[in-house]
Each structure stands twice: as structure tokens, then as C-alpha cells.
Amino acid sequence: MRHWKRLWWACASWTGVLACMGAHAQSNVELGKLGWYADPEAHVFAGQYWIYPTSSDPGTAPRPASDFNPQQQKLREGHVIHPVYLLHTSLDAFSSPDLVHWTRHKDVLDVRNVPWAAYAIWAPSAVYRNGKYYLFFAANDIQKTDTFAGGIGVAVSDKPGGPFIDALGKPLVGRFENGAQPIDPMVFQDSDGSVYLYYGGQGHCNVARLSSDLLHVIPMQDGTMFREITPANYVEGPFMLKRNGTYYFMWSEGDWGDASYGVAYARSKSPEGPFVRAGKILTTDPKVANGPGHHSVLQIPGTDEFYIVYHRHPLGTTGINQRVLAIDRMRFDATGNILPVAITPDGVPSRPLAPPAR
Fold first, then answer.
1. CA–CA gap between residue 356 and residue 358 (Å, rounded)
2. How do residues 15-30 score in pLDDT, each as one tens digit?
3. Would you name the residues annotated as active-site residues?
């Protein structure tokens, strides 16, 4: 009887109710039910957890031509490296009160609202600034010799669940700089108000400064527009976080389609580097999943509690696009190094957010 009384009182508040509802539920079990998604970026917006991923394997049914404007139709009829990229035409998002119970928000970004983007809509990065929500994304998978529009775009919305509408009418970054393919954007707001864009595929990574309205690349102090910061073994998927005055630059390395894929990091006292590889902290566990990577890091507001949010290939899958989302704890040692992450089958338990202060 005493046990049940204690349980009743623990669940008496709204936060307690959520915790008790999720006492036996686990994040990775529930995320795996959402379908094939990859490249997640996680945030806390408007009192909820949000994840913005790539729709990894959206199926085989193409959208009707009427969904695309003439420019988009022409792009889709041209050179496309992989036919499946033609299916990547929108982005979903997910919200949760506790990291376990998720609500799907369909098509928060869609090519119908980005006139220059036709396919390969990937790897979103979300930012709240100036009373608006901004979503950065890659589109059209441009290569070094391509002359058509493509690269990193930015869309804006009044709500974290969209719809996000193209803000520029063209890419923000529309060509290779320093060998970096303009994909995989990550926008980082520093504590002094400065905003940085990290991005890059094909083994190169750049950092650039963004204007206060997030719609322009502006020069750094030395006049550089795009600074290469590529660390050893970098492949793609950059991410930046700041803890106790130290900048942690993170990225994915290895082959995204196999068990070599994982996440490494470097430390610096500057958001512009230099970044010297410190080690790999997220790797395949043959008993759990393969190829964990292209991650983000979620810090619970007001705490030193961190979670790594990433995608992975479930055991037994054979398609390279068959990836699911996962969340596990990420910890630091006493000297500030990131400890190797233990990837788990079930993930983390319910973690409701504290109610907003009144």
C-alpha cells in the first residue's frame, strides 16, 4: 500500500504524470516505430522537444508532375545521381513532451514552398531567432560541375511545426567552396549573439558567419567568407556545441552505408577552430545496430545533461536508406572530454521538461 501511495504522489503533477506514463517506455523503441528517418537535429522549442530529420526511405511512389513547377520538373528530368533522391521532396518533424512519445508533423518543408528545390531535400538544421523559426536544408545534390540552382537553402515559419517557406528564392550557399559540397548545414548561435554556419560533404567542411537575420553570409574578421576547418577523417554531418567555454566540433566519418560510420569530435577555444581530432565517440555495436552517425546533441535547458540524437541501421536491414532515429546519453569526463557513447537497444526513459517559469 505504501508503494502505491508513493507512486500516486509522484504522478500528482503534470510532469509526474508524463514521467509515470513513460516509466516503462524507451525512446529508441518508440522512435523505431516512426519509420525510416536519418540526419536528425534535436531542439527544445516552445516547451517541447523537436526532431527535424531527413526522410530516409520515403517509398517508391513518385509524386505527380503537378506538384512541381516547370523549373523543378526540368531539374528532375536532368542528371540525378541516384533515382531515390527524386523521392526526397519534403521533410517531416516530430515533437514530444518527454523524448518517448512523439507526434509526427508531416511536410513541415515541401518543395512546393521552395521554387528552386526539386529533389534531395536533406539534413535540416533549425534555429529560433528574431521571433521566427528558421530551417536550413540541402537541396538538389549539386556537384562541382553543375551549373543549376542547388545547395543550402533557408526557409522561415512562425511555428516550429511549419509550414516553412523559402526565404530567399535561391540557395544561401549555391556552389562548392574549398572543395565542400553545400550539404549538411548546421547553424550554431554563440553566447555573444554571433551565428555560424557549418556545412560540407565530400570530405570537406567550412564555417561561415551569418548575418543577424540569418539570410546572408557575412565576412569574418579577416574578410574570409568561407573558412575550411576540415579535421582528420571528416566525411560529413558537422555539429557544434559549447560547454563551459569550450567549443566541441563533431562530425561523421566512415561510409554512411556500412558499419564503419560513426561520430568523432575535436575541441577548441574558438568556434572557428582550429579543430584537431580527439577521437571517435559513437561507433557500431554488432549486438545493437550498425553505422550510427549524422547526429546532433540535445542539452536539457538549465542542466549539464546531454543526449546524442542520431540515426542507425537496425540489425538485419540491407537497404542503405533503411535508417531509424535513436537517442542515448552523452557524458563528459572530469577534464571535459566526451566519453564513448554506449548505444542501446531501448534508448533513454521518459525525460519531461520542467514547466516554464511563471
1. 6
2. 444 344 444 669 999 9
3. 39, 236
What Cα–Cα distance (Å) separates residue 16 from each residue in 1, 7, 11? 19, 9, 4
Q: How far apart are CA 20 and CA 257, in angstroms?
A: 38
311: left (phi over 0), alpha (psi -120 to 50) or beta: beta
**Of 346, 295, 306, 352, residue with least CA distance to 30:** 346
CB 207 within 8 A of CB 272: yes
CB-based contacts of 198, cutoff 8 Å, min separation 6: 185, 186, 187, 188, 205, 206, 207, 229, 238, 239, 240, 249
- Beta-carbon contacts of residue 154 (< 8 Å; ≥ 6 apart): 134, 135, 136, 137, 166, 167, 168, 172, 214, 215
Amino acid 218 reads I
What is the DSSP secondary structure assignment for residue 112, as one 8-state letter? G
CA distance 224 to 208: 8
User: Grid coordinates representing 196?
Assistant: 555560424
pLDDT of 261: 98
Query: Which stretches does DSSP call E strand in the chain?
Result: 37-45, 48-55, 90-96, 103-110, 122-129, 132-139, 151-157, 165-166, 186-189, 195-199, 206-210, 217-218, 227-228, 236-243, 246-253, 262-268, 276-282, 289-299, 306-314, 324-330
Which domains can be identified in the chain, with CATH numbers? 29-330 (2.115.10.20)
DSSP code, position 46:
T
pTM above 0.85, yes or no: yes
Angle at which helices 14-21 and 2-10 cross, to 10° = 120
Q: Are 260 and 254 in contact (CB under 8 A)?
A: yes
Confirm if 140 and 117 have CB atoms less than 8 A apart: yes
Q: Where are the alpha helices (DSSP H) in the chain?
A: 2-10, 14-21, 27-32, 70-77
- Alpha-helical regions (H) of 256-351: none
Taking only the tens place, the pLDDT of each residue in 261-314 is 999 999 999 999 999 999 999 999 999 999 999 999 999 999 999 999 999 999
CA distance 354 to 141: 40
Provide the grid cell at 259.
558499419
**Rounded CA separation 145/163 (Å):** 32
